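Homework help board

Subject: predicted structure for assignment chain

Our instructor gave us this sequence and asked us to write out the predicted structure in token form, then describe one feature. I got the tokens but I'm not sure how to describe them. Can anyone check?
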Amino acid sequence: MRPLKLPVIAATFLLLGMQAASAAGIYVGAHGGLNLTHDTDISGIDLSFDPGFAAGAVVGYRLNPNVRFDGEVTYRNNDL
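My token output:
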């Protein structure tokens, strides 16, 4: 009985998330992660970027499951 506990909990959260995603109205969210930038060469000068981070937020309004309007702000940071 115990091995089924985790899959049942995961399925419950998945179904709750799907229900919330289909509802009309205002929604907010946040995101973050690793920001990787390719190294580049400008006029013979090699620039190498260290891995950085990205963080942001989103707010919007869902009219129905197919139409929504939102705005997003994201901050990214990498050192040379």
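Reply (TA_rk): Your tokens look well-formed. For the description, you could write something like this. Helices lie at 5-22. That's the kind of observation they're looking for.
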